[in-house]
């Protein structure tokens, strides 16, 4: 079925006779999902759960209401709302479009009212504003929850962002095991409370040793690509098991250390695919390119390296990614 | 490109502009391969090397000529030829069609001249006849040889046949490390001598503690499916690296023990795909079904289980395969 993810007629064709309909992005408009659900289409996750990934404002409000730790925030409709929040928390603040942002798009560090006005031009219904937090680090926890209610969690990973985009996913996360346990419990509890089905990626801030929920994704997610080689069951298979109500797979890691580095289109516009043979010369490098058109700054693939030592695995993955991006190191 | 693997015109369409043309079966007739090679199509492996997998008689003669250990054999054109060989080696003997056999087809244990006559009816040019050897066990060694000449070997596995069909592939093979070294050296030497490019599966008999070369396959092979999860680089990726002249990948195992059990269509004709959810409940079971129509006795998929203990991994893989085949154990 070829069609648009925003066209009800196309989606009805897709859903006809399907045991279950699931997602690999958040691009189906909530109102279209609601109509499909009213048709009786078995959607996993449900439109209500999916909205937690589609709308950052909704997610903050709901997670706060459910008692989960989220950063301080305000729903700002005007530059004056932003300034009032900044008066309490200090400039700069971070403004986020509730919908449609990714890889740093739709997010801006705001130094004052003019910047706020600019971002608000794209968001007639207002933006999410939060403090520019001092982060110890960022983490991600992937969990899976089946339509049967069974749930499992993968080991916690550290995610490293540059220029607003996730660049590194590192297992094991270099954190206190108690904090890892807390992150697992938090992610499993969110999955349960919001009724997630399929995999759920929970992106966490660590600020002053406390966990704060940043964003959710109710689908296989970049922060889980390490599981393709690095865990007994990849997030893609796990997602299908979960939405089909099949038994969930083991989530144990396949090596003591797994490093995944994203491959980003280089400034000169060249395609990393032209350099794959060189990158494959790095011992242990597992190269994944997504077949997307190369554009500077666009996420085009990733490299995973398994090993016994986290620093060595990361160094090799960084080397292979650099070769793909046409850099020496 | 949709077409027939035996039609020169279809294959010319496929090959037009290709950097390299390779194979996942031996079904392209040798004369068609020769024509493509004469056209200048870059074939990997070459038609000459491929013939070692296409024609059992040619392989026996050539391997013997090159000094590799093969079972005693004769090229029998008549029942009298078979009887003369049996007079020397004893009945029963094993008769094999030179071309077209697989999974036990085209191979027969011959008790006397009438059986030989029957097999010879399918082989006007004669059959291969060898003794019915007492085997200690069977082994397989997967090697890869690049168009650049680089070559690597995977760990030796034991293969277990039932009803003429490979049913189990077990790593590690329970053999003396010196015999494993010998098997590696033998397989790498064969790859070099016959000019193989891509992966080469060497099937070996162990008889009276000696290695004998049984068959070759110059493509990803059933005996190498364990590498999908069980080795750093799967045989499929390795094959592509090798025929493209790219650096070869690591061949080290990803676990101390890896067991692969083939899934065969059960006698009642039911499809293992209808039982996949149950099989996925076996911890660690990685289920692969090939999407082929279910027929009794047809190889339809396989299950791989990794683990620390060979017996435990094998038991789990056998359990999952049995569930897929609709058996309790």
Give the secondary structure arrangement, pairings included.
Two copies of one chain form a homodimer.
Chain A: H1 8-15, H2 30-39, H3 47-54, H4 56-65, E1 74-76, H5 79-89, E2 93-96, E3 107-110, H6 113-121, E4 127-131, E5 137-145, E6 151-153, E7 157-162, E8 165-171, H7 177-194, E9 198-207, E10 210-217, H8 227-230, H9 235-244, E11 257-264, H10 276-279, E12 286-289, E13 299-307, H11 310-324
Antiparallel strand pairs in A: 1-4, 2-3, 2-4, 5-6, 5-7, 5-9, 7-8, 8-11, 9-10, 11-13, 12-13
Helix pairs in contact in A: 2-3, 3-4, 5-6
Keywords:
329 residues, alpha+beta, homodimer, 11 helices
Can you describe this structure?
The structure is a homodimer of 329-residue chains. Chain A has 329 residues and is an alpha+beta fold. Chain A has helices at 8-15, 30-39, 47-54, 56-65, 79-89, 113-121, 177-194, 227-230, 235-244, 276-279, 310-324; strands at residues 74-76, 93-96, 107-110, 127-131, 137-145, 151-153, 157-162, 165-171, 198-207, 210-217, 257-264, 286-289, 299-307. In chain A, the strands form 2 sheets. In chain A, strands 5, 6, 7, 8, 9, 10, 11, 12 and 13 form a 9-stranded antiparallel beta sheet that branches. In chain A, strands 1-4-2-3 form a 4-stranded antiparallel beta sheet, with helices on one face. Chain A binds chain B through residues 232, 241, 244-247, 249-250, 254-255, 276-277, 280-281, 283-284, 306, and chain B through 232, 241, 244-247, 249-250, 254-255, 276-277, 280-281, 283-284, 306.
């Amino acid at each position: 079925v070829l069609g648009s993810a925003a066209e009800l007629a196309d989606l009805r064709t897709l859903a006809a006779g399907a045991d279950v309909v699931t997602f690999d992005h958040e691009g189906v408009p909530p109102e279209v999902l609601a109509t499909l659900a009213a048709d009786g289409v078995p959607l996993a996750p449900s439109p209500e759960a999916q909205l937690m990934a589609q709308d950052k404002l909704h997610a903050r409000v709901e997670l706060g209401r459910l008692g989960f730790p989220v950063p301080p925030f305000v729903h700002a409709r005007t530059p004056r709302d932003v300034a009032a929040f900044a008066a309490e928390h200090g400039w700069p603040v971070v403004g986020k479009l509730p919908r449609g942002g990714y890889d740093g798009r739709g997010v801006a560090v705001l130094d004052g009212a003019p910047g706020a006005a600019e971002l608000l031009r794209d968001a007639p219904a207002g933006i999410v504003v939060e403090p520019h937090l001092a982060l110890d680090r960022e983490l991600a926890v992937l969990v899976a929850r089946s339509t049967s209610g069974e749930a499992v969690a993968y080991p916690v990973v550290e995610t490293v962002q540059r220029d607003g985009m996730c660049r590194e996913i590192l297992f094991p996360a270099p954190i206190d095991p108690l904090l890892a346990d807390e992150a697992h419990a938090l992610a499993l509890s969110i999955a349960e409370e919001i009724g997630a089905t399929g995999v759920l990626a929970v992106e966490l801030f660590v600020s002053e040793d406390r966990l704060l929920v940043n964003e959710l994704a109710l689908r296989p997610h970049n922060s889980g690509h390490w599981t393709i080689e690095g865990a007994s069951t990849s997030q893609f298979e796990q997602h299908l098991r979960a939405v089909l109500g099949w038994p969930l797979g083991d989530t144990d890691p396949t090596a003591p250390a797994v490093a995944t580095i994203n491959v980003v289109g280089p400034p000169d516009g060249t395609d990393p695919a032209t350099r794959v043979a060189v990158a494959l010369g790095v011992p242990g490098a597992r190269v994944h390119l997504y077949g997307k058109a190369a554009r500077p700054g666009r996420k085009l693939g990733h490299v995973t390296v398994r090993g016994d030592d986290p620093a060595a695995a990361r160094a090799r993955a960084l080397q292979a990614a650099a070769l793909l991006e046409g850099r020496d190191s």
